[in-house]
Write a structure and sequence with these properties.
Blueprint lengths: L22 H10 L14 E2 L11 H7 L10 H13 L4 E5 L2 H12 L7 E4 L4 H9 L3 E4 L20 H11 L6 E5 L12 H14 L3 E4 L3 H11 L8 H10 L3 E5 L10 E5 L2 H14 L10 H13 L3 H20 L12 E5 H4 L9 H13 L1 E2 L1 E3 L1 H4 L15 E5 L7 H16 L7 E5 L5 H4 L1 E4 L2
Parallel strand pairs: 1-10, 3-4, 3-5, 5-6, 6-7
Antiparallel strand pairs: 2-8, 7-8, 9-12, 11-12, 13-14
Helix pairs in contact: 1-14, 2-11, 3-11, 4-5, 4-10, 6-7, 8-9, 12-16, 14-16
The structure holds pyridoxal-5'-phosphate.
């Protein structure tokens, strides 16, 4: 097909009507929600870009699979389907289903992190829940991504790569016995959905082998990462995404997976691995935390959805549309002169609120103010990734100001069309034109932990 003929590679069989609100209604809704977009009823959101997690539209094939749910306590056929899908797509022998990704993390760290002093888990960049689970086990999460990842406008095809010199240096400095495992997060979510190259995956794997350290992949967006490898890495243009995915996992001892991302499911996850003895060990914790090993935290029908989703997500027409849509939104915003983080990653576009609203100091929460302004303008919901999210320094009690103040516009999979993206661009442009009028915010209620979820604000005068 010619490039210009390539539209969304699906037709729409069922629709969920969107509710249009007036500006006055959104003003009132914002007041009621304390200017915290997490507290809005989702029906009052026109285009919801809060997260790409658990928000995908399932295919007809996945919906049909739900009817084949075998809700047996033990030995459900859907478990066996999930097992063969994981084997086929990722190559791993054993799979332990969990209710979502963080439950797989909990089981893995509980098994591998022994309760002794000074343990480090190394990752390119830990995702929030991964970091929290590492800390919960008394270990220290260490991010070893290359420094370039912290430059918001440095263009690099694989900005998620781990710094292999830092990795080997760290292992030599601290000693192998203090490092129960090394992980790579693909794509690198906390770094903006930036991909990791196969060369880097191979190199990290080789270092882990050399020192005898288990190597796991946080695989939430493995297909998106594989697609970037196909598009950008030398030697992979002629390989299929499925072949690339298989190669990625061939270098790892296992993976944790949130099926709410590249499982194209609304709930679910798993831990997958090759070593039989380790599988026996994780099963013990799996039973305790999640349930019998052939269902974990999932209903049979949900395992079927994930099994089918894992195969669908590797389709290249789908990935071309998926990654293409995120890149499309980014390119249109750049064209309009809107400051965003570059290059655009696989699942979201990040507005740079410091450059967008230079008149707002960080203690007036420019990211939150921008997210609120975008909802007021067009009923579009993004999420602040800035000072509100970062919280306070436990020692000084001061805001723990991050380098970047951002609004993340995460794109759900197969949910919105390019026309919706045009609407987002139009609304962002209109906010940008009136940016001097955007007011800062202050807390009227600040919860002690995870404040971004339940905090309330009011606009400053
Ligand atoms: C979402 C996510 C997780 C956690 O998965 P949940 O299903 O939300 O528990 C872990 N790692 C990364 C990179 C993620 O994006």
């Amino acid at each position: 097909m010619k490039q210009e003929y390539l539209a969304e590679p699906f037709r729409i069989k069922m629709v969920e009507p969107l509710v249009l609100t007036t500006r006055e209604e959104r003003e009132r809704l914002l007041q009621e929600a304390g200017y915290n977009l997490f507290l809005l009823p989702s029906e009052a959101v026109y285009i919801d870009l809060l997260t790409d997690s658990g928000t995908a539209a399932m295919s007809d094939n996945q919906w049909a699979g739900m009817m084949l749910g075998d809700e047996a306590y033990a030995g459900s056929r859907n478990f066996h389907h999930l097992q063969s899908a994981v084997k086929e797509v990722m190559g791993f022998e054993y799979v332990l289903p969990t209710h979502q990704g963080r439950a797989a993390e909990n089981i893995l760290f509980t098994t591998l992190v022994q309760n002794q002093k000074e343990q480090y888990i190394l990752n390119n960049m830990h995702f929030d829940t991964t970091k929290a689970h590492v800390q919960h086990k008394g270990a220290k999460p260490v991010d070893l991504v290359r420094d370039i990842a912290f430059d918001p406008v440095a263009r690099d095809p694989f900005k998620g790569n781990m710094d292999t010199e830092k990795l080997e240096g760290f292992i030599q400095e601290k000693g192998v016995e203090k490092i129960p495992l090394v992980m790579l997060t693909i794509t690198c979510n906390s770094g903006g959905g930036q991909p990791v190259s196969l060369a880097n995956i191979k190199a990290v794997s080789a270092i882990c082998k050399k020192y005898g350290i288990p190597f796991f992949i946080d695989a939430c967006r493995f297909a998106e990462n594989a697609y970037f490898i196909q598009q950008r890495e030398e030697g992979y243009a002629g390989k299929s995404v499925s072949e690339i995915a298989k190669e990625i996992f061939s270098y790892a001892d296992g993976c944790t997976m949130s099926a709410k991302k590249d499982g194209l499911a609304n709930i679910g996850g798993f831990l997958a691995l090759n070593d039989e003895e380790l599988y026996r060990q994780v099963q013990v914790w799996g039973v305790l935390f999640e349930g019998f090993p052939t269902y974990g935290g999932m209903a049979g029908r949900d395992m079927e959805v994930v099994a089918r989703g894992l195969r669908e997500v590797c389709r290249e027409d789908y990935l071309r549309y998926r990654i293409g849509q995120v890149q499309y939104l980014g390119a249109k915003l750049l064209e309009a002169g809107i400051p965003i983080i570059e290059p655009v990653g696989g699942h979201a576009v990040y507005l740079d609120a410091k450059r967008f609203l230079p008149h707002l100091p960080q203690d007036q929460f420019p990211g939150q103010a921008l997210a609120v302004a975008l909802y007021l303008e067009g009923g579009i919901r993004g999420v602040e990734i800035g000072t509100v999210l970062a919280g306070r320094d436990p020692e000084t009690g001061e805001h723990d100001y991050p380098n970047l103040e951002m609004v993340r516009l995460a794109i759900p999979r197969r949910v919105y069309t390019h026309r919706h993206m045009d609407a987002v661009v139009a609304a962002v442009k209109n906010v940008y034109q009136k940016r001097e009028q955007v007011k800062g915010l202050r807390f009227t209620y600040e919860p002690p932990v995870l404040r971004h979820f339940t905090a309330r604000f009011e606009p400053l005068g």
